[in-house]
């Protein structure tokens, strides 16, 4: 295709714009003939709403899938996972196997969760089974840790009970009052006595077949304050919530490192203190959860960026951060637009390993299917398939073979 | 003294040190308890008991303890040599060290007077209680540290080393191209590359190494898998000497913590934990002036470090206890340094009222906490972390900030660095010298910290594997030279000290083992 890629964005962030400019792509406005549009969530909603009937041409790419909120809104995510598990169970799939206590063996990756106020009574039943437990309330449509709080008494969430004045109909349709409530994991892994979470970047280029890539340079975000499960500190968000938006207002927030660690630091620490096998298993499980979550969201469209809050923050809090995000966008664009050319909409080829940059293949359904077909073929002809230690795929080693 | 006498003296010395130790009483108890066992026969009592101790692993523990003693034993010497000669044989080095110590102590005392902060004071009850509550999160404490300055920084120490002269050596004879271009002007015996190649054969190009042959693009069957299996066996055997030998080619991340603990014979038994608790109690009861120096150091260095900020609280827990640990005083027998003395109030000069200050005799300087920080990646239990750090300090780190003629001492390392550079990169050295950028001025801060805080943690740990494996800090000097060799092209372009510093400011992407390997084994000689 001749001519440079024409791009539009409504997010004025240097990590994006610098990447477009360095490729010498041409900036245009949204009313002109564009090839690549990096959209904010609002724009996606408008562009793809039922009323406008907008259709992408073969030479247009966007960075969000229109139904992205199936994965990023907390209540929809839960609904999708629960439904996915039931479907697998109905099919009799091995993945849906349960242990003798009725817990899923392979699909137990979300804590017990209910939607409020819809499932209030179910929640109360569960709460009463273990009245000393702590639960975390998260508003469905918010991000950056806004509006999250912890409870350990039913009285603290009276507002969401059926009898309250807030009508459930209003809540359901507006989506604003809806919350999810999950069993709080009050014994998180601590490092240096502090709680942390993982920020991983996953790129999904096609959904059917599923092709997703995980960025190797994810990071951990630490709380500045020591973790304590003590009930007296349940409302101290500096202890429990790792979001930078919250932590950076703490007294001890450090602007040099931003309370962040690279995932490779985490790996080194875990391998050194807990051993390599345990660590590999942990990362395999993390990758597994990501792939299963993607599969749970049953949609089929063309292009998608995943980050479990839809819009990965492109703001940089430290110098290292800026470099990381710049490189992330760079590697992403290289995969999505190989050789800087507008790909054919039927383009489905997987990029060669060298072109992945800091991404690694998380799951390639097409390749998995062809490999298992090959395996069948070989075993039928009596040949043995040696283990191949495929380092490029799924984080660690041949363990990937276990879930094909 | 002949070898035979030397050996028996050595043995006698070690026996004396281990007598009365906890291990001794444990082995005795085991020996007594095993008498009930059916395989112990009266006729062959001695052999049977010994054989039992062997199979139950106690002999191995004893072996490890002896091995440890050998590490910290003084080299053989003349029977009438005075103690100070054992610490440091060269008189001019002793003198220099003594005058440096005087300076530091003076600085500490004047800080105490100026700020009106006593060297030590007992904490009032309320303060003690508060500290107990805050023990696990002292990092959130914000004492007023602005008034405190570090007692010294590495560059102050460098100036002292530069001014070292051997009064018996007339260096003006050698004003020629063969003279030494560097800053260190003392004639110590340093190994050159051919000798280093012999000493570090395990690092040669044809042997597999961790840090090279375990990278992503190398198939694990080629080296890594077997090497890890061997490592696991070493850990199961619980043999210090084997662990040390193994460590020369690197420790697998999953086994490193166990291997280092083995090499250092850091067992973390009940008595170690109790000892740590006692130290902790000491911290609660008394506040030392050096505590503020430790706080300040951690806040300035580790807290701002991308890798180590997470462990800030552990660093306080280790370093505050370390300052109070009088067991550390033992190492002054073979350290050229002497612990500073302070006098109780009003009794200056009266030896009866002299105490060692701080109790462990070690005054921390700027960057000191970086000796502990990397260990936090390996050990997350405070008393174990403490025990490993203490052993590493009394075996290796102390040599990086005391003036001595030891092979592993900082003076030798500096000289070695400069000699390697001058011999193998003369053009670079000459150029840097001409623009006023003496290489040692840049490399010194790396070496004093054994590169902690300058390399990425995984690389640093690979380097420290070799320090432990070869029981020497020499690799630190070799790496420093190798870094200059690696960046030589860029360095040849610079025209000032500042730009040279800039070229070498960021070492976080370096892979140290290939650098060392290439420098040692691929340099033309």
From TrEMBL, chain A:
<keyword id="KW-0966">Cell projection</keyword>
<dbReference type="Pfam" id="PF03133">
    <property type="entry name" value="TTL"/>
</dbReference>
<feature type="region of interest" description="Disordered">
    <location>
        <begin position="366"/>
        <end position="404"/>
    </location>
</feature>
<dbReference type="GO" id="GO:0070740">
    <property type="term" value="F:tubulin-glutamic acid ligase activity"/>
</dbReference>
<keyword id="KW-0963">Cytoplasm</keyword>
<keyword id="KW-0206">Cytoskeleton</keyword>
<dbReference type="GO" id="GO:0005874">
    <property type="term" value="C:microtubule"/>
</dbReference>
<keyword id="KW-0436">Ligase</keyword>
<keyword id="KW-0493">Microtubule</keyword>
<dbReference type="InterPro" id="IPR004344">
    <property type="entry name" value="TTL/TTLL_fam"/>
</dbReference>
<keyword id="KW-0547">Nucleotide-binding</keyword>
<dbReference type="GO" id="GO:0005524">
    <property type="term" value="F:ATP binding"/>
</dbReference>
<dbReference type="GO" id="GO:0036064">
    <property type="term" value="C:ciliary basal body"/>
</dbReference>
<comment type="similarity">
    <text>Belongs to the tubulin polyglutamylase family.</text>
</comment>
<keyword id="KW-0067">ATP-binding</keyword>
<dbReference type="GO" id="GO:0000226">
    <property type="term" value="P:microtubule cytoskeleton organization"/>
</dbReference>
<dbReference type="GO" id="GO:0015631">
    <property type="term" value="F:tubulin binding"/>
</dbReference>
<keyword id="KW-0969">Cilium</keyword>
<protein>
    <recommendedName>
        <fullName>Tubulin tyrosine ligase-like family, member 1</fullName>
    </recommendedName>
</protein>
Automatic annotation (TrEMBL), chain B:
<protein>
    <recommendedName>
        <fullName>Rab-GAP TBC domain-containing protein</fullName>
    </recommendedName>
</protein>
<dbReference type="InterPro" id="IPR000195">
    <property type="entry name" value="Rab-GAP-TBC_dom"/>
</dbReference>
<dbReference type="InterPro" id="IPR035969">
    <property type="entry name" value="Rab-GAP_TBC_sf"/>
</dbReference>
<dbReference type="InterPro" id="IPR042507">
    <property type="entry name" value="TBC1D19"/>
</dbReference>
<feature type="domain" description="Rab-GAP TBC">
    <location>
        <begin position="250"/>
        <end position="471"/>
    </location>
</feature>
<dbReference type="Pfam" id="PF00566">
    <property type="entry name" value="RabGAP-TBC"/>
</dbReference>
């Amino acid at each position: 295709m001749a001519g440079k890629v024409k791009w539009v964005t409504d997010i004025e962030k240097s990590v994006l714009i610098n990447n477009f400019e360095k490729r010498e792509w041409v900036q245009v406005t949204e009313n002109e003939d564009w090839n690549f549009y990096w959209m904010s969530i609002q724009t996606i909603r408008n562009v793809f709403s039922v009323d406008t009937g907008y259709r992408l041409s073969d030479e247009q790419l966007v960075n969000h899938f229109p139904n992205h909120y199936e994965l990023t809104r907390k209540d929809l995510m839960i609904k999708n996972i629960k439904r996915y598990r039931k479907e697998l169970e109905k099919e009799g799939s091995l993945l849906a196997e349960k242990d003798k206590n009725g817990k899923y063996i392979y699909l137990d990756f979300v804590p017990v969760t209910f939607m409020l106020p819809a499932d209030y009574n179910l929640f109360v039943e569960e709460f009463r089974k273990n009245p000393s437990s702590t639960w975390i309330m998260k508003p469905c449509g918010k991000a950056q840790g806004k509006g999250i709080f912890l409870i350990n008494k039913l009285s603290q969430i009276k507002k969401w009970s059926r009898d309250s004045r807030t009508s459930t109909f209003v809540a359901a349709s507006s989506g604003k009052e809806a919350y999810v409530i999950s069993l709080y994991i009050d014994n998180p892994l601590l490092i240096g006595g502090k709680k942390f979470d993982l920020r991983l970047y996953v790129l999904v280029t096609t959904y059917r077949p599923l092709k997703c890539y995980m960025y190797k340079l994810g990071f951990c975000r630490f709380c500045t304050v020591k973790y304590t499960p003590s009930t007296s500190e349940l409302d101290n968000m500096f202890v429990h919530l790792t979001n930078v938006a919250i932590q950076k207002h703490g007294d001890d927030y450090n602007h040099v490192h931003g309370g962040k660690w690279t995932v490779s630091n985490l790996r080194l620490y875990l391998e050194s203190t807990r051993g390599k096998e345990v660590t590999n298993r942990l990362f395999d499980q993390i990758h597994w959860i990501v792939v299963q979550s993607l599969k749970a969201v049953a949609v089929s469209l063309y292009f998608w960026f995943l980050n479990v809050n839809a819009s990965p923050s492109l703001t940089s809090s430290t110098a290292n951060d800026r470099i990381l995000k710049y490189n992330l966008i760079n590697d992403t664009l290289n995969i999505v637009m190989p050789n800087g050319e507008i790909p054919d909409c039927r383009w489905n080829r997987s990029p060669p390993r060298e072109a992945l940059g800091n991404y690694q293949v998380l799951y390639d359904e097409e390749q998995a299917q062809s490999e298992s077909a090959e395996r069948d073929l070989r075993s039928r002809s009596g040949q043995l398939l040696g283990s191949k230690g495929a380092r490029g795929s799924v984080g660690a080693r041949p363990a990937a073979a276990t879930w094909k | 003294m002949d070898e035979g006498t030397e050996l028996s003296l050595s043995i006698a010395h070690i026996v004396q040190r281990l007598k009365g130790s906890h291990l001794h009483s444990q082995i005795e108890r085991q020996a007594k308890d095993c008498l009930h066992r059916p395989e112990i026969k009266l006729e062959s009592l001695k052999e049977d008991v010994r054989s039992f101790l062997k199979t139950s692993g106690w002999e191995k523990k004893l072996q490890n303890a002896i091995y440890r003693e050998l590490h910290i034993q003084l080299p053989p010497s003349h029977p009438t040599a005075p103690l100070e000669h054992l610490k440091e044989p060269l008189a001019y080095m002793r003198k220099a060290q003594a005058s440096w110590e005087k300076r530091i102590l003076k600085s500490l005392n004047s800080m105490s007077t100026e700020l009106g902060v006593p060297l030590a004071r007992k904490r009032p009850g309320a303060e003690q209680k508060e500290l107990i509550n805050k023990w696990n999160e002292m990092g959130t404490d914000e004492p007023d540290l602005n008034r405190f300055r570090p007692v010294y920084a590495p560059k102050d120490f460098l100036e002292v080393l530069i001014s070292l002269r051997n009064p018996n050596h007339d260096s003006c004879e050698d004003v020629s191209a063969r003279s030494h271009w560097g800053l260190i002007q003392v004639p110590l015996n340093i190994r050159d590359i051919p000798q280093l190649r012999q000493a570090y054969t395990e690092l040669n190009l044809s042997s597999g190494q961790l840090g090279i042959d375990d990278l992503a693009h190398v198939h694990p069957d080629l080296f890594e898998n077997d090497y890890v299996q061997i490592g696991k066996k070493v850990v199961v055997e619980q043999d210090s000497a084997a662990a040390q030998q193994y460590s020369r080619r690197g420790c697998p991340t999953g086994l490193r913590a166990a291997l280092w603990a083995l090499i250092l014979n850091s067992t973390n038994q009940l008595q170690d934990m109790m000892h740590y608790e006692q130290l902790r109690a000491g911290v609660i009861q008394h506040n030392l002036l050096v505590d503020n120096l430790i706080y300040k150091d951690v806040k300035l260095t580790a807290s701002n470090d991308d890798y180590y900020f997470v462990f800030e609280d552990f660093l306080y827990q280790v370093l505050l206890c370390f300052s109070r640990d009088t067991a550390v005083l033992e190492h002054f027998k073979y350290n050229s340094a002497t612990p500073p003395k302070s006098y109780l109030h009003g009794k200056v000069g009266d030896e009866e009222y002299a105490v060692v200050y701080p109790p462990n005799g070690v005054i921390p300087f700027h960057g000191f906490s970086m000796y502990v920080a990397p260990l936090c990646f390996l050990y997350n239990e405070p008393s174990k972390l403490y025990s490993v750090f203490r052993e590493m300090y009394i075996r290796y780190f102390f040599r990086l900030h005391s003036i001595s003629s030891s092979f592993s001492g900082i003076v030798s390392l500096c000289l070695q660095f400069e000699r390697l550079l001058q011999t193998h990169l003369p053009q670079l050295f000459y150029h840097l010298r001409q623009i006023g950028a003496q290489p040692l001025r840049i490399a010194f801060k790396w070496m004093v910290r054994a590169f902690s805080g300058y390399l990425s943690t995984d690389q640093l740990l690979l380097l420290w594997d070799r320090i432990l494996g070869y029981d020497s800090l020499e690799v630190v000097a070799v790496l420093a030279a190798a870094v200059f060799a690696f960046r030589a092209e860029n360095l040849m372009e610079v025209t000032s000290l500042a730009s040279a510093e800039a070229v070498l400011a960021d070492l976080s992407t370096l892979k140290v083992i290939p650098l060392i390997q290439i420098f040692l084994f691929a340099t033309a000689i």
